[in-house]
Amino acid sequence: MTGKLVKTVIIIAIILSVLGFLGYSYNADVEAISSIEVKLDDIDLTDIKFTSFKLKLDVNISNPTNQHISNLSSNFDIYIAENYVGKGNFSKVSIPAHSRCNKNSSVTIYYSGLADAAVDIIEKIITNEEFEFNLTIDGKISGNALFGLITVSQSFKAIQTYP
To answer: Which class is domain 2-162?
Structure first.
């Protein structure tokens, strides 16, 4: 009877150890994805069309954590003065722990959204309201966690107020 009890305790200890390790690994991956830092290095105007134009952004993404981040991607919308002006994305970049990488991102800007934003800003100037507007990037960032077995997504919103 004590032999079965010892085997059972050993099996339970092994299972709890594996589950603890997987839980720790998952939480570390999620924390790494939520800790990334993004900086814009360069912007190039490309592909001008009748209703929109594209911007090619050179984005510097840094991973300040001890975890490797794999298959990081993002989709986001862009708003100026609360008017939808475009969308952007970048896909599948991996960043080792305590490092950074550059990734090209494509952004599509629609003229109609820019026109609506310009009208709202001009209205504020004419009515002597405080001249201030927001540039907002609102989206979702995703990356692999738990040794690539699970995809973790997190919403983000970045707001820059001008002037």
So the answer is: mainly beta
